[in-house]
Automatic annotation (TrEMBL):
InterPro entries: Biofilm_reg_signaling, CheY-like_superfamily, EAL_dom, EAL_sf, GGDEF_dom, Nucleotide_cyclase, PAC, PAS
Domain EAL span(s) in chain numbering: 428-682
GGDEF domain span: 286-419
Cofactors demanded by this protein: Mg(2+)
Keywords: c-di-GMP, Phosphoprotein
GO molecular function annotations of the record: cyclic-guanylate-specific phosphodiesterase activity
Presence of the UniProt keyword Nucleus in the record: no
Reaction it catalyzes: 3',3'-c-di-GMP + H2O = 5'-phosphoguanylyl(3'->5')guanosine + H(+)
Name this protein carries in UniProt: cyclic-guanylate-specific phosphodiesterase
Domain of life: Bacteria
Ranges of residues in domain Response regulatory: 2-119
Length: 689
């Protein structure tokens, strides 16, 4: 024990030293100083367990002596040494924080040792309590302490702040004063059960503030046993208010289920409501209707007036739609300009007709958006549950298919899903529906198949071949969807996308330092006769700063023969621009060789139908060599496609076909693979011979 003795009276100091050394079980280190100033200085560099302080020193006297020492060392226990007449003063000092006082004339060794131990212990407890009180008052968590009967005996400042009461209004009451009525009796029963069994309960409780507002808090309640009998003496509840947390949780939840633009439920919430609606319809033996709406001409408005106006229009449409349905119905925005409605608990099918008409009517009046007056109409598809097909997962699809029927029926009308929209017709319609969206959703991909120059064995060109990466159907080949694109006219925008994407790709390869190659792109009949085709191509090439001769457009004979005059005109325009033209599948069509000389084309492409059985099939062999010869004589290039084996390759290169294309060299592959191929191909030996 390290003791600081501050005593100027030498005999007293000697006496104390002697008493301390008597009967001591502790190791005593006594550090004796006669002046307070010296003691204060010593405290700066040394630590002591306790101080024994005489109140009359040469440089300090009375209460002041204690106060100065206590101020400098507030955690040091101090025992005051007094004379017999100073007892009153000593008691005052005990009040001010001294741990004990000893009358010098009454000192004994035992008393001194007991007092030292007691003083040190008391100071330690006092410091601990003071720390606990500081924590209690300064913590951000609200703390409430009750007795065993749940009468509140203490609350901290934070608790008052959270609840809005002052402590006097709370003390003596029970926690029921905060009840929010958000929890059942069973909830509290279980809380008490757990608390009494385990001594602790943690969870979320909604309470009520003085203002009446309810708020959520994370609460940790501990049962504190009495020291004496180990029975529960107090309950301590610590409250962390989580209103902010709850709000952000609710906000996140809202965002996950709503369309941020219109505030309407999104597809996820729609599906959820649909599932609930179906269950309810089953229970109540009632009916629900699902409507699928798409705005006619929205894309046009969006493209011409810009996206911000398009967005404004969607918000206005959502608002009008909201007014057409009841509280219990759901109106959702599925994406883009597509909306869906669930009409719940319908008594009769005719009710839906009424709503559909109301919607058409509501949207038919002019919209004023961004200073523009615009008109939109809507096509609506309707289906029912229970209905023709009780497959719940197909309800939205059925309404979607019916909506396309409405579009086909001249838009601005509604159609019910009917049985004849199923099976093949349904499949086809679904395909069409999905194809319509594929471009917007960026589901088309271009694959590239290399063309090998027979002379050098190098890749001198690629053919761009479209694929559709459909989320529902997987990777679809063009044979399955090009005819439908043609039929619906969608081939025009899709074809333009193909040209642009292929050109961009070529530019990328050139910029990356690969040798320049021909990019062959298929054109469809409808695209070929598109009025601004040549201008569009010129624009794309110019924008990308690409040499036009690197683009080779593949046409079929029938496309050119369909209307020869206009075809010749277009071909001349392309020729003037410098773009190359190949006749695909040459020999399979109806072209008269006589016409060929009028057509400014650059390449004849031999169909894989003729390549397939080379060289054994003598008819195919003579057609293939005739086409190659014809090309050579007319100074045209020749390409054979569908080369799958070495015999075919040998025959064709033997006939001096210029370029070969087929699985023997590579299947059509994504662009990255071509880059890889180009890296290795140049080093490959020439294939023929
Ligand atoms: N059996 C066999 N087949 C081979 C071999 N090498 C290549 N092929 C396939 O033969 C087709 C050649 O294209 P195509 O005659 O222009 O015939 C194309 C073309 O007419 C059309 N097409 C493809 N992409 C487009 C496009 O972007 N626009 C238009 N309008 N039509 C396209 O779809 C047709 C089919 O395209 P794909 O399915 O990609 O089929 C491609 C290709 O994958 C081989 O060694 N053996």
């Amino acid at each position: 024990m390290k003791i600081l003795l501050i005593e100027d009276h030498k005999p007293d100091a000697i006496l104390l030293r002697e008493l301390l050394s008597e009967n001591s079980t502790d190791q005593i280190h006594l550090f004796h100083l006669e002046r307070l100033g010296d003691a204060l200085e010593a405290l700066k560099s040394r630590a002591f367990d306790i101080a024994l302080l005489d109140l009359s020193l040469p440089d300090a006297f009375g209460q002041e002596t204690f106060r100065r020492l206590n101020r400098v060392a507030p955690s040091l226990p101090i025992i005051v040494l007094t004379g017999i007449d100073d007892q009153e003063l000593a008691m005052d000092l005990a009040q001010a924080g001294a741990q004990d006082y000893l009358v010098k004339s009454e000192l004994s060794s035992g008393l001194l040792h007991r007092s030292l131990h007691y003083a040190i212990e008391r100071k330690r407890t006092e410091l601990k309590l003071r720390l606990a009180a500081t924590v209690f008052e300064s913590t951000l968590e609200g703390i409430m302490i009750t007795d065993a009967k749940t009468n509140i005996i203490s609350v901290n400042e934070a608790f008052c702040e959270i609840t809005g009461y002052v402590s006097e209004e709370i003390i003596g009451c029970t926690p029921t004063m905060f009840e929010s009525e958000r929890h059942s009796k069973a909830f509290f029963r279980q809380l008490w059960d757990v608390l009494n069994k385990t001594g602790q309960w943690r969870g979320e409780i909604w309470n009520r503030r003085k203002s009446g507002e309810v708020f959520p808090a994370w609460v940790n309640i501990s049962a504190v046993p009495n020291i004496v009998d180990d029975k529960i003496g107090h309950y301590v509840a610590v409250f962390t208010e989580i209103t902010e947390l709850k709000l952000s949780e609710e906000r996140l939840n809202y965002l996950a289920h709503h369309d941020p633009l219109t505030g309407l439920p999104n597809r996820l919430l729609f599906q959820d409501r649909l599932a609930q609606g179906i269950l309810q319809a089953q229970r109540r033996k009632s009916m629900i209707a699902v409507m699928f709406l798409d705005l006619d001409r929205f894309k046009l408005i969006n493209d011409t007036l810009g996206h911000p106006i398009g967005d404004e229009l969607l918000v206005a449409v959502a608002e009008r739609l909201r007014r057409c349905a009841r509280e219990t119905d759901t109106i959702a925005r599925l994406g883009g300009d597509e909306f869906a409605v669930i009409l719940s608990s319908m008594a009769r099918e005719e009710d839906v007709e009424h709503v559909a008409q109301k919607i058409i009517q509501a949207l038919s009046s002019v919209f004023c958006v961004g200073g523009h007056e615009v008109f939109v109409t809507t096509s609506i598809g309707i289906t029912f549950y229970p209905g023709l097909n009780n497959d719940r997962s197909k309800l939205l699809e059925q309404a979607d298919v019916a909506m396309y029927h409405a579009k086909k029926h001249g838009r601005n009308n509604y159609q019910y899903y009917t049985a004849d929209m199923n099976a093949a017709a349904y499949e086809r319609l679904m395909l069409e529906t999905n194809l319509r969206r594929a471009l917007e959703r960026e589901e088309f991909r271009l694959y590239y198949q290399p063309q090998i120059d027979v002379q050098s064995g190098a890749v001198t060109g690629v053919e761009a071949l479209i694929r559709w990466q459909s989320p529902e159907l997987g990777l679809v080949s063009p044979g399955e969807f090009i005819p439908l694109l043609e039929e619906t006219g969608l081939i025009v925008p899709v074809g333009e996308w193909v040209i642009e994407t292929a050109c961009r790709q070529m530019k990328e390869w050139l910029d990356a330092g690969y040798p320049s190659m021909t990019m062959a792109v298929n054109l469809s009949a409808r695209q070929f006769h598109q009025v601004d085709l040549v201008e569009r191509i010129a624009q794309i090439l110019q924008e990308l700063n690409l040499p036009p001769e690197l683009l080779e457009l593949e046409l079929t004979e029938s496309m050119v023969m369909e209307s020869v005059d206009s075809a010749v005109e277009i071909l001349h325009k392309l020729k003037r621009m410098g773009v190359k033209v190949a006749i695909d599948d040459f020999g399979t069509g109806v072209s008269s060789l006589g016409y060929l000389k009028h057509f400014p084309v650059d390449t004849l492409k031999i169909s894989h139908d003729f390549v397939l059985n080379l060289p054994r099939d003598s008819v195919d062999a003579s057609i293939a060599s005739a086409v190659i010869n014809l090309a050579r004589n007319m100074q045209l290039s020749s390409v054979a496609e569908g080369v799958e084996n070495a015999e075919q390759m040998d025959f064709l290169s033997g006939q001096d076909c210029e370029r070969l294309q087929g699985y023997l060299f590579s299947r059509p592959v994504p662009a990255e693979k071509i880059a890889e191929l180009l890296g290795t191909w140049q080093a490959m030996p020439k294939k023929s011979g």
